[in-house]
Amino acid sequence: MSTSLSDTTIHLVKATVPALQEHGLAITKRMYERMFRNEEIRDLFNQSHHGETGSQPKALASAVLAYAQNIDNLGALAPAVERIAQKHVGLNILPEHYPHVAEALLEAIKDVLGDPATDEILAAWGEAYWFLAHVLIGREKAIYTSLATAPGGWNGWRNFRIESKQKESEIITSFVLWPEDGGPVLRHQPGQYLTFWIDVPGQHPLKRNYSISSAPNDQTYRISVKREPQGVASTWLHDKAEVGTILKVAPPAGEFSLNEESPRPVVLLSGGVGLTPMMSMLETIAAKYPNKAVHYVHGTLNGSTHAMKDRVRSLAEAHPNIRVTTFYVEPRPADRQGEDYDHEGLISVDWVRANTLLDEAGYYLCGPRPFLRAFVGGLALAGVRSNRIHYEFFGPADEILAAA
């Protein structure tokens, strides 16, 4: 494999940018249509991202465009490549899967663009695809090796039994998972997620990512799942999965994690079910770094949706360095200000600027996309450097060759 792209390929790929801006979505839709004719390849993907919203084809169209625009500056895409590699490992993507994507992508470019997709253009895109594919394959191999050789680690799918099931709010339920083989489990990095293969009668195999909501230990994981109105997997977990149910689970993955080596204070910002990775971080800090200053700011609709309130409160009462502030968007009459929540309304960037350690802290964010758009950009405009802003989101990433 070449260690760099040829000048000709760089020139030709950049020349396709206008066509990708106009026809990129049509290309990615056609690509997935072709790929999903193969059931084995189809089942690698989270099909909830290919439904009515078509979020994955849109994300991939943006990703392919970003790759073309930055093909002469690939260093700018390094964070995106790491995120994709982590997601691929969670989904158990292997080198033998990449040719299927290459074939479908090149055929889709030819189908949609027609005559302008000359043999030279297709050859350039073939070289560009495989260059990136080999970068991802190499990084994924390193991750797979690290996971397989770590204490309690594994590759692929491992059976876990639901040991306990606890309702945390009207819409969120926690599941504690114990490995069926009785062996130890890999100690995850606080903030990471697990990928699940879920078999629901009448459905194709479902792939879902759920953040781990417990501190690392050698025996179990806990996930806390929101029931989504149209969510097949979340509804099945809430209504059908019981203590003793077996789930197929991939090893912990994700580049969003608490920097445990940093001496900085920590601000955790979450909206709704975005609290799940924050609980893992909060429990870890309480157990291992009781002197670290932490400000946990959480927003939710009201007391009916406020999950794990008592757990957070007990951690704060036991550790004076943990400060908690809660916002309810629409408090119920039964919700008590000063006890159940602190402020009414949405968390704002201005409030965060005025009430957290803006000049000192590391910021960790998780929540709905509007929440992330507001705070990732808002914190940057407020002067927080990008290396102190860390965030997690699920769903298709608007990045190169996202295949979650």
General description of the model:
The protein is α/β, with parallel strands linked by helices and 404 residues long. Helices cover 39% and strands 18% of the residues. The chain has twelve helices and twelve strands. The strands form two sheets. Strands 4-3-6-1-2-5 form a six-stranded antiparallel beta sheet. Helix 9 (275-288) links the parallel strand 7 and strand 8 (294-300). The longest helix is centred in the N-terminal third of the chain and has 31 residues, at 119-149. It starts with 6 loop residues before the first helix and ends in a 12-residue tail after the last strand.
Overall 3D form: globular
CATH class of the largest domain: Mainly Alpha
Question: What class do helices, strands and sheet pairing give?
Answer: alpha/beta
Termini distance? Answer: 26 Å
Q: How does the major sheet shape up? A: 6 strands, antiparallel
Strand order of the largest sheet: 4-3-6-1-2-5
CATH homologous group name of the largest domain: Globins
Mean pLDDT: 92
Per DSSP, the total helix count is 12
Radius of gyration from CA coordinates: 22 Å
Give the count of structural domains: 3
Q: Could you name the ranges where pLDDT drops below 50 across 5 or more consecutive residues?
A: 397-404
CATH topology of the largest domain: Globin-like
Label the CATH architecture of the largest domain. Answer: Orthogonal Bundle
Cofactor: heme b; FAD
InterPro entries: Cbr1-like_FAD-bd_dom, FAD-bd_FR_type, FNR_nucleotide-bd, Globin, Globin-like_sf, Globin/Proto, Hmp, OxRdtase_FAD/NAD-bd
Active site: 98 (charge relay system), 140 (charge relay system)
Pfam family, one: Globin
